[in-house]
Amino acid sequence: MKIIRPGLRTFIFALYVILSISSLIILNQYFMHKTNQITSGFNQIQFSESLRNIRMASGADSLAANALMLRYGESMLNIRMVLRETQIYSILILIGLIVVSGLLFTLVMLRISQPLVELKEATEQIRQGNFSVHLPETGIFEMKELKGSFNRMSHELETTQKRLLVAEKEMIWKDLSRILAHEIKNPLTPIQLAVQRVEEKLEIEPEKLVEMLPDTLKVIQQEIDNLRLLAQDFSSFAKIAQPQTETFDPAEAVREIAASYQDNYTIKLNLEADHLIRFDRTHFYQILTNIIQNAIDASPPEQPIELNLTTNKAFVVLTIKDYGSGIEPDDLNRIFEPYFSRKHHGTGLGLALVKRLIEANQSVIRVRSQLEKGSEFILIIEDVKARRSFLREEV
């Protein structure tokens, strides 16, 4: 059951009625009291004095007394009539004042409450995002001032909203540009390393250049393909939230990605075979290259980077481990935040993008780290083959 609570107008009107009725009762009692006093005083003074002047010694005195009694009775009657009329007229005047003041009160309340209703409706429109609402500046002086302040506020809000929309668009483009620049940098590193190896062989052992050229060209071609796919991804940023999944062998994909780094860095692979995952291949490449690059940046040159691929029930678990300086405990909960980075270079967008891509592909990432001992990034992805086996067993 809905409880109806009286508003401000109801309280004011009730208070006004109570005060008016109380005033009427008090005035009526006052006039009655005064009437009794006047009557009593007249009886005690005038009638007593007149009787004292009559000796009652003759018949003439008796007639005078009778005449006095008649005049006294007529005077008392006139006094009572006058007092009665005074009471009636006072009551009528009070009732008239109550009615007139009530009408004035109602008009004033309507004149006050109507602008308040308009303000309430306008405030509701602003709450819904319509900052262009404008109220006519009419009514009593205080209401005009209030509406004027409201109109200035709505205009400032509308101007601020437009500025925020422009700033938000600019921020989105800036973020997009930073992420794109960060992601382009990762494929360029293997290409640069491959070109440097070709130059070194050309200067030192040109006769062996032909032997290594196919592998070098394969690495360059692979990175160029990744750049092309990356450019396509960023041409429509929403594609990140809608991955183009396909089924592939994660061990094979990890070997191809690690091959780009193995000539310059020590990459140890421990990969279990015979697994399948359903994942966006380009996203998988972006995730792994970002984590590997972070591991390389955090590790001394002589320390290896370990990539382990194992299974845990119906999931493929891919671990990227380094033996670097580790991550501060207070920073572990922030490493996936955009622009958060403790490195002297970089934008802090790499791991933020990793987190987003992992979640877009319905997977999970975990981090373990110890200071001066290194860090482990753990990717947990559903094993399609194990899931199929489970479904066959259920059938």
Number of helices: 8
Structural class assignment: alpha+beta
According to CATH, what is the class of the domain at 239-394?
A: Alpha Beta
Q: What is the succession of H and E elements? A: HHHHEHEEHEEHEEH
Q: Portion of residues in helices?
A: 55-70%
Radius of gyration: 49 Å
Distance linking N and C termini: 54 Å
State the major sheet: 5 strands, mixed
CATH superfamily of the domain at 239-394: Histidine kinase-like ATPase, C-terminal domain
Question: How many beta-strand runs?
Answer: 7
Shape summary: rod-shaped
What is the overall pLDDT average?
Answer: 77
* Unreliably modeled segments: none
Q: Tell me the strand percentage band.
A: 5-15%
Q: Give the CATH architecture of the domain at 239-394.
A: 2-Layer Sandwich
What order do the strands of the largest sheet run in, or round the barrel if closed? Answer: 2-4-5-7-6
